[in-house]
Write a structure and sequence with these properties.
The chain is built from five helices and seven strands. By secondary structure, the chain is of the alpha+beta class. The protein has one domain. Strands 1, 2, 3, 4, 5, 6 and 7 form a seven-stranded mixed β-sheet that branches. The protein is globular. It starts with a strand and ends in a 5-residue tail after the last strand.
């Protein structure tokens, strides 16, 4: 069953752009040429977006390929499909890769078992709050939020369906 998603390369050094395209090409198994624009928060960096369609698991393949360059800020989303949760991947330099299930509205989903585990392990309200923030990827969101807004109105590359 095909699904679709988006790759947001929020920030990458100019000399890594071609490597990013090659990584995405490997994951999607089709040639990719992105429309790069200057990242307004860092004029030495570039940003690009890509809409993709492909088999379930493509988002994980994309994130695995892109995480090879630790200096890249990126997000990959894969929408839910019949019987399969969606996923969100966020990567921030110095923080690494965050992965979580994603609902139809794009929200990170915490399942009942995960919540019960967080409650059982918490040593008080502050520890529970910290554990919830970690489980929701709050630190990644806080780092990426300015880059998301800086990309408003930037060009988006759309690919035909991939197999």
């Amino acid at each position: 069953m095909p699904t679709r998603g988006v790759v947001h390369v929020h920030s990458t050094p100019l000399n890594v752009c071609s490597h990013v395209e090659w990584a995405i090409t490997r994951a999607l198994t089709v040639p990719v040429t992105l429309q790069w624009s200057v990242q307004p928060l860092d004029s030495a960096a570039r940003r690009a977006e890509l809409d993709w369609t492909g088999p379930v698991g493509t988002g994980a393949r994309l994130a695995a390929e892109l995480r090879q360059w630790s200096m890249i800020r990126f997000e990959v989303t894969e929408e839910p499909s019949d019987g399969v949760d969606g996923e969100r991947f966020m990567h921030v330099p110095g923080r690494g890769l965050f992965r979580a299930p994603m609902g139809a509205a794009g929200d990170i989903q915490l399942g009942e078992d995960r919540l019960r585990s967080l409650l059982a392990d918490a040593r008080g309200p502050e520890a529970l709050a910290h554990a919830l923030e970690q489980a929701l990827g709050t630190a990644w969101d806080e780092d990426l939020e300015p880059y998301r807004h800086a990309g408003d109105g930037a060009p988006v590359t759309a690919l035909p369906a991939v197999g």
